[in-house]
Amino acid sequence: MESQLTILLPIAAVWLAAGVLADGLPRLRNTRTLRRRTGWLLVLALSGVTLTAAALVGGLFSAGTAPVDRAAAGLTLAVGPALVVAVCSVRRIRRLWAGAGAFASAPATPAPHGLRAAAAHPLVGLPLQVSALTTLPAVIAAAGADLGAEPAVTGPAITVGALTVAVIGVRHALRHSRFAERTRPAASTSARAAGPLHV
Q1: Which letter does DSSP use for residue 62 in this model?
Q2: Between vectors from CA 62 to CA 69 and to CA 57, what angle results, nearest 5°?
Q3: CB atoms within 10 A of CB 114
Q4: CA dist., res. 141 & res. 198, Å (int)
């Protein structure tokens, strides 16, 4: 086993767990469960950002041939998504956690559509899942597969990766839109359907 794999595997595992957990948040119907899972997601997101940053900083200060340096070189793709998580996703997850906490006195309360729409926002789940995807090439390379040495594999792999990110993004946007539609008041819709009232 390559020694940099011992650095990359925990980072990839944290990002993968965060991505899976974020994907399931909008399906939660109980406010108490939503708050608990959002708390776990916040811890995982912060852990992913911290571990990725630690590996990258360690690579900057290494001699150039150390395992941490090779791990940092493999994580260059994950820098952008991890930065988006740190700047956007963590703030949204913290707000979602606080919003679910407003129902702490009534733990059996069903999760409102507004909270579920916030949980389905693309900036909550998408950056976490893209961060997980961008760690995979580093893990595969550390395991012994040299993807860069085979141009016939590199091109299709990049295309599949880009298409996967696009599909995930569209899925998040559609799901967020569906939940946001449910938060709109029904009164305005019924008033438009009834038409003008003549006296």
Answers
A1: S
A2: 75
A3: 13
A4: 73
Q: pTM value?
A: 0.83
**Three-class SS of residue 30?**
strand
Of 117, 135, 122, nearest to 84 by C-alpha is 122
Distance between CA atoms of residues 137 and 150, nearest Å: 13
Using the 8-state DSSP alphabet, how is residue 64 labeled? Answer: S
Tokens at residue 1, please? 């086993």
- Measured in whole angstroms, the distance separating CA 49 from the mean position of its chain's CA atoms is 11
Q: What is the pLDDT of residues 34-84, one digit of tens each?
A: 999 999 999 999 999 999 999 999 888 877 678 888 888 888 889 999 999
52-61 long-range contacts, CB within 8 A, separation 24+: 52/11, 52/78, 52/79, 52/82, 52/131, 53/82, 55/7, 55/8, 55/11
Q: What's the CA gap between 142 and 127, in Å, rounded?
A: 23
6 touches 22 (CB < 8 A): no
At 199 the three-state DSSP class reads coil
Structure tokens at 196: 């003008």
Q: Where are the domains of the chain?
A: 5-186
